[in-house]
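Subject — a protein and its fold

Tokens — whole-number codes for backbone shape
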Amino acid sequence: MATEKHEWSGWRTAAERALYGTGGFFRRPEGPAGHFRTSVHASPLFARAVAELLGRVDEALGRPAELALVDLGAGRGELLTRVLALAPGLPHELDRRLRPYAVERAERPAGLDERIAWRGSPPQGCTGLLFANEWLDNVPVDIAETDADGVPRRVEVDLAAGDGTERLGDPVDGEDAAWLARWWPLAGAEPGLRAEIGHPREAAWARAVRSLRAGLAVAVDYGHDRAARPPFGTLTGFREGREVRPVPDGSCDLTAHVAMDACAAAAGPGAGLLTQREALRALGLDARRPPLALASTDPAAYVRALGAAGQAAELTDPGGLGAFSWLHHPVELAHNPLRR
């Protein structure tokens, strides 16, 4: 009888290979947009809000000779492309001073605006706005689950099976155990509770914030805090717009929500958290329907305004995209442009 083969791995290693290895999900030519829809894809109003924030950062910095816009986890450059289209309308010749950087581990897509610098890691020492939209959730992490005795153990996935089969491995120890104790306590909990061990994300975010000499760093993602951790974790997959079982074979996105309070603490003092609904409203996004009288005086303008209100409503819906967390961290700024 043939012996069944197994290849057990922690989720952090497995997801790293599946997402970013040769032939991995994020290295495919079509990019992630064909599999899931972010705020960037939902409406050009999101790019308009980012452009507004960029202008406020520029003002807070005293309008430097060069202003960086670093898109961390840039996909195929969709956000930067839209902001560049808006740049000629921004004040104080910002379009002339703007230096856009796309940070992504995939190859540069064909036809991308030549003004966009394509990099595998953030540029160091920039002045401006660093914006990471749905990036932290794709920084791979290991997973812990409590066994029958309430001991947190590492969750391992069988790479050979190719179907996401899991088992419980060794007890969590070292840095992982210390992180759980501080941010997501599991010890002694009932069997089957899970946690996503987030310190790799904290380290990644702290590095991103440190890459700025001055400016504002913003991370936008689904998140939670210690008071409301999801008891069974959030690891899932997405393929062709549908949620699927997480299988680390490169065929689907692998994502888990972010412990935003832990990331905020890791980057040092000054960090703040807003919901996307709060942030976009602060940046001038208006989801109110236009006055009905406009339909009589200027029907075309009414239709345009109605469409924009619908898009704004989707971006700020507290039951959907509006529930995203905006983690914002000013660096050497006199005031936070998201708090005025």
Observations:
- The first helix runs from residue 11 to 20.
- The chain has a mean pLDDT of 92.
